[in-house]
Amino acid sequence: MGTTGFEPATGRCACGAVAYRVDGAATALYHCHCSVCRRLHGALFATYACVQREHVTVEAGTGSLSTYRSDLAKWQFCRVCGCHLFAEHEHNPGMAWYMPATLDGDLTPGHPRGSEKHIFVGSKSPLARIPDDAPRFEGHAPGEEGAASS
User: Fold this and answer.
1) Are 52 and 24 in contact (CB under 8 A)?
2) CB of 58 within 8 A of CB of 98?
3) On the CB side of 97, how many CA atoms lie within 13 Å of its CA?
4) Measured between alpha carbons, how far is 79 from 18 in angstroms, rounded to an integer?
5) In this structure, what CATH number is given to the domain that contains residue 55?
6) In a domain, 147, yes or no
7) What is the pTM of this model?
8) What is the strand order of the sheet 74-78 is part of?
9) Mind listing the pLDDT tens digit for each residue in 113-135?
10) CA 139, CA 136: separation in Å to the nearest integer?
11) Lateral strand order in the sheet of 56-60
């Protein structure tokens, strides 16, 4: 186990050009329903695991990472297959968000029970259904402005 009590996890993009390692448990898991995340991921919502930046290491394929900068964040994705992998926000220095759906096998981000939440449900797609009982917020979760997307 890592020093944080979290079993290190590995992940990769769809084509395998970029591989990464996470050696710390996520502090929270966000399902963001905002229009920016929907467009970036081509999905009804995007899921992010929040972790201290120092716990994420790109182990292979740094040359295959492309960066898209918006007013909101810096997004990193594989330039070969287009898979979104990471996000960072200037207003949350030292934190990183990675896409837990890209973790290998049955690995999970290790987030605390009860830290999963749906954000920006006020702008969710009419096609989206939220079947679980995780907390829902019209925008950012209280006290977490800038924690994921907007």
Assistant:
1) yes
2) no
3) 23
4) 9
5) 2.170.150.70
6) no
7) 0.85
8) 65-69, 74-78, 84-88, 95-98, 46-52, 28-32, 116-119
9) 888 999 999 999 999 899 888 88
10) 9
11) 9-12, 19-22, 56-60
